[in-house]
Each structure stands twice: as structure tokens, then as C-alpha cells.
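User: Can you predict the 3D structure for this chain?
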Amino acid sequence: MALETVAADVTRFRQWGYELIKHDFSTYDVFGRFAAGSPAELAPPGWSLADRSVTSAEILVRLYRTIAEAAGDTVVIGCNTVGHLSAGLVRVQRAGDDTSGRSWERTRRMGVNTLAFRLAQHNRFFTVDADCVPCTPRTDWNLNRQFLDLVARSGTALFVSVDPAARTDRADTDLAAAIGLALDGGTPGGVEPLD
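Assistant: Here is the predicted structure, written as C-alpha cells:
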């Protein structure tokens, strides 16, 4: 059975000593579609799960619960999971699509906007993760630094992707300060919409 295999894999990762497990693309694994390029339906007409006595939502909750139970106290990040169905079954939710180390516009669209529109769910459903703050030679550090500051002040999960070729004294100082602020929980009330 698929759920038994998933449980065995996650248990093995935990036994190997992993303290953080991210499961990603599980809605694609279940339905064979990825929302970004798909119609509004999760599955094509006529398609069904093997067990027709349960809904697709129930199937996803079973999957998320199986992963959570097998993970024990290991932190689980859900990515490409259905937020309201994974609430309480993942500690962290990648709440938007991927940011980019190549295009600031994509980071603005996917990271900044994700934080703006999903911040209300933070610490209510799960810890919100707006995706990684990039630090690469191909992106403007002045812009990424602002995203870094925003995520750190928000108190949400802060992940950074640093290309060693992009490291400068300024970037290292900015990263250290942001990580320190994030570890302290951010700035209460520090991220509020302007309008």
C-alpha cells in the first residue's frame, strides 16, 4: 500500500537523524497535475482514485497524517500541499511558488506577494514559508535584501539560498542580522500593509 511505503520512508529519514523533512509535489503525485499549468480541476474528467468511497480531500489528509505520524517530532515542511487540509499536519507550509536567483520579478511576484497574502495564516494554520531569499550574482542584492528584511521581520520561516560567488561583506552582515532577527521571532507588528 502506498501509505505504508510513505510511512516507512519518512520513519527511515527520521531514524537517520534528519530533523527537517520537506515533502513536495504530493498533489502532483496524487492527481498527476500541477496547479500552475492545469485547469481548475485537480484531475481530468473521468479520472478517479482507486478508493471511490472517499473524497480526494480525505485521501490528501490521510497522506499528510501518515507523513506527520511517521515524522514524530521531526519538523515537516509541506510544499505543493493543500494548506487548509495540511493545517495541523505540517509545521511549516511553503505557501507560494518558487522565488528565483535569476529574476527579481519572480521573487517579487512569488515571495513578496505570498507573504502579503498568506501572512494571516502564519501561526494559525502553520508557520508560513514564503520561499528562499536568494543571494546570487544574477540578482540585485539591494532588492533581495529588502525581501530578506521583510521575511525576517515577519517572524515567518526564513530560508536563504546563498551562492558563494555572491557573498560580500555587506551581504554577510545583512544575512547575519536578518537571521538573528528571525531567530528572535521577528518584530511584533513589524509587517503591516500600507493600505
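The first strand starts at residue 20 and ends at 24. Residues 2-93 form one domain.
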